[in-house]
Automatic annotation (TrEMBL):
PANTHER family: ATP SYNTHASE SUBUNIT E, MITOCHONDRIAL, OSJNBB0050O03.8 PROTEIN. The chain crosses the membrane at residues 12-31. The keyword Lyase does not apply. This is (wild Malaysian banana) hypothetical protein. It comes from Musa acuminata subsp. malaccensis. Keywords: ATP synthesis, CF(0), Hydrogen ion transport, Ion transport, Membrane, Mitochondrion, Mitochondrion inner membrane, Transmembrane, Transmembrane helix, Transport. Belongs to the ATPase e subunit family. It is found in: Mitochondrion inner membrane. GO terms for biological process: proton motive force-driven ATP synthesis. InterPro entries: ATP_synth_F0_esu_mt. The keyword Mitochondrion applies. One of its GO terms (cellular component) is proton-transporting ATP synthase complex. It comes from the Eukaryota.
Length: 52
């Protein structure tokens, strides 16, 4: 019988931690993307006015 390594099975805690980290990353990414899109739109509007 082989000696089990440091990760020898599926831990519920590890699964929940990975799933919540993934979900947080998706939510954070979508919020950041929408913020950057609004910022880019604002800068385009300012450049069109000729303020820059």
């Amino acid at each position: 019988m082989a000696i089990p390594g440091p990760y020898s099975g599926v831990s519920t805690l590890a699964f929940v931690a990975r799933a919540s980290a993934f979900a947080f990353g998706v939510v954070y990414g979508s919020v950041k993307l929408s913020y950057l899109q609004v910022k880019a739109k604002y800068h385009k509007k300012e450049e069109a006015k000729g303020h820059h």
